[in-house]
């Protein structure tokens, strides 16, 4: 996803959080933007190693990075550490990973939470 699309998702998430009565839509948009940002970081890292953007996207698809352990492996290969352990930015990955449980519960219909929790986690993302 292009950086402009990630920014657009975040802007729409902000609007949804402010106008929604339950805020899950804003939370989910924020989460999609977070996932896209991680992929963008990997694409940039692969491009720095000489791959074209197209080659980087193909590599990431082949690596099945939608599986967290595989995404972590690519981060380790490129940046020398798992995302939560990366210097300067690891804390952001740790905070965002705390949102994944709510995302999974909501998307798979196995749990609910308060509108405030959705909104708070949206802002953290």
Description of the molecule:
The chain is an all-alpha fold and 125 residues long. The protein has helices at 3-19, 24-48, 53-62, 68-79, 90-97, 100-107, 115-124. The two termini are 17 Å apart. Helix 1 runs antiparallel to helix 2 (24-48). The protein has seven helices and no strands.
Layout of helices and strands:
Elements: H1 3-19, H2 24-48, H3 53-62, H4 68-79, H5 90-97, H6 100-107, H7 115-124
Helix pairs in contact: 1-2, 1-7, 2-3, 2-7
Instruction: Give the total of beta strands.
Output: 0
Strand content: under 5%
Average of pLDDT = 91
Give the CA-CA distance, first to last residue: 17 Å
Mind telling me the C-alpha Rg? 15 Å
Q: Which of globular, elongated, flat, extended, rod-shaped describes the shape?
A: globular
Largest sheet: none
The ordered string of helix (H) and strand (E) elements is: HHHHHHH
Determine the structural class based on helices, strands and strand pairing.
mainly alpha
- Could you list the spans in which at least 5 consecutive residues all have pLDDT below 50? none
Helix tally equals: 7
Helical proportion? Answer: over 70%
List keywords for this structure.
mainly alpha
Q: What is shown here, in short?
A:
This protein is mainly alpha-helical. The protein has helices spanning 3-19, 24-48, 53-62, 68-79, 90-97, 100-107, 115-124. Helix 2 packs parallel to helix 7 (115-124).
